[in-house]
């Protein structure tokens, strides 16, 4: 076990280090050839478009089941990806996954309002869970999810793929190594232009909130993993054109400032009305910039006084961040380890987001509990 | 009089438009050949290094007097720039400038703590005043300066040179023309690495405060002239290492958020421990970026979705921002017009800075009076 964990438990090992070191020789021998089986719950844009195609890039993970409310779609996807008909489930017979020994992990790729229910049902069915971000509608739901998995003796991981993304890992490594001196300031802007007003992401009952739940959470996550600190207070200001049909129920833009114990200030902007994806760390000796920072691909990284020194990092822990994420939980299952982004990590973000909303509503600084 | 003023009075005319339109044909005829005489008060880095060399680039301004506490330096500079010995003053005989008819305008390039006194004495001596930013130590001082100039019937302008800088003018013009759609978000980071701990800028009694008074004020000014709005509330967070010998008396970093009536959020960072000079305007159809934004020279401007479209603006109102600024007040004197950046503009910034400090101190949002 030589994985280097920093004080927040972020795996700093680059390249194949996680894969190589996470499993000792004896464990590797025991699990040689064994691929952990995933059931994907939800065949929407993310599950179908991003996750399912990644199993071919995995070393320790395989797709064994699908859960969908659309039988024809499920059948088509199953045929395309070699999932047996016996691995096709719907939301009614979902609990019978307990009888399918091929399924080790359930990956919940559903609207946020369904995360808690389908995570808890998976745990009760004796399965480990990978749940997409944001973890749930509320911290109360997150706590219930953690409790259910703990009670069932099952692992719970949140789909924070950037923890497996080489440019982000390299930026963290260089920040921790002191390459920009003492870190003073973190800034991130994350946004995209929301389209269809009928999308579930724009319905509060399904999404739990607007841009911060969906895209601003990347800025919040990055503020925490880049600084390696937990914020002690937040202040936020929301601005939304409520006459815009997209934003009748959820916020468009919300700016939030995070106070960190060391004195680092985190300044984050989340938006549904502009495209933006960047991270800046400013130290007293230079800066680290990522733009795009957290996209599915195409990341760029600069370290120095400006953008004169562009960095190409070593390969991350998987063929890409998606495969790295899938294989990480698979390895945790094989090895009985705790994932680096467990349920508690998702809960922390939701608690901070709740404080951000409270701050915007009450127009005051909200202190966060340690 | 065809100068286009927007609602905040920002001169949007580009190129030579200000010079050409500000003075009608008859006025031009009357003032043909007449150059307005400036006395420079303070032969420090800015007055001597930046301002005095610019008179050769002016059309309507000439250097006629110097005020300095160092007679040898004053004599040397006078000889170099063709100022007669009769135009050399010190801080004791300063008030006798009233007897020098060559002096129309006094340009106060002194530490902030001396701005009010030397502005008021100039007005009492019957001279117009150009005073460097920040205008003074406090809004109370600013009010006294405005009152003194008003009482003397003299003009008062603040040295906000960016209002004469072509890249900034072009950015404003394009933002107002709707090139990035509806403006939603303004962000600016301004900072540099402070050096010598004994510098007057780091002594609170002389500077009035730290980075925001010196460099962060550019972010504040830009937030106002770029949006064309006045903020209605501020929230600020300071972070300073008080053990650093540079920061025993004044702040290092201060982040401040501005709320604008239209819903635009302004996010500004001011710092004395990192080099940064940039402005970003984000609209629902694109963005405008300036980096560096407010340096003495070397500005760059991008308009579009990212940085693919770099803009070279038309020539500004002078050979450069310094000459444009000097000639603007000269023309205002010749033409009896109010400068576009009068004392009231400096007062507005100081009032907002006072609210920023109050917010940081009291850890709460401060509403600004209209």
Automatic annotation (TrEMBL), chains A, B:
Which Gene3D superfamilies does this entry report, sorted A to Z?
Answer: Dihydrodipicolinate Reductase, domain 2 (3.30.360.10), NAD(P)-binding Rossmann-like Domain (3.40.50.720)
Pfam families referenced in this protein's UniProt entry, alphabetically: GFO_IDH_MocA (PF01408), GFO_IDH_MocA_C (PF02894)
Recorded GO terms, molecular function? nucleotide binding; oxidoreductase activity
Q: Does the keyword Oxidoreductase apply?
A: yes
**Top-level taxon of the source organism:** Bacteria
Q: Which UniProt keywords apply?
A: Oxidoreductase
Is Hydrolase set as a keyword in this record? no
Residues covered by the Gfo/Idh/MocA-like oxidoreductase C-terminal domain: 177-368
In this chain the Gfo/Idh/MocA-like oxidoreductase N-terminal domain maps to 37-160
This protein is called what? Gfo/Idh/MocA family oxidoreductase
Q: Which organism is it from?
A: Pseudoduganella lutea
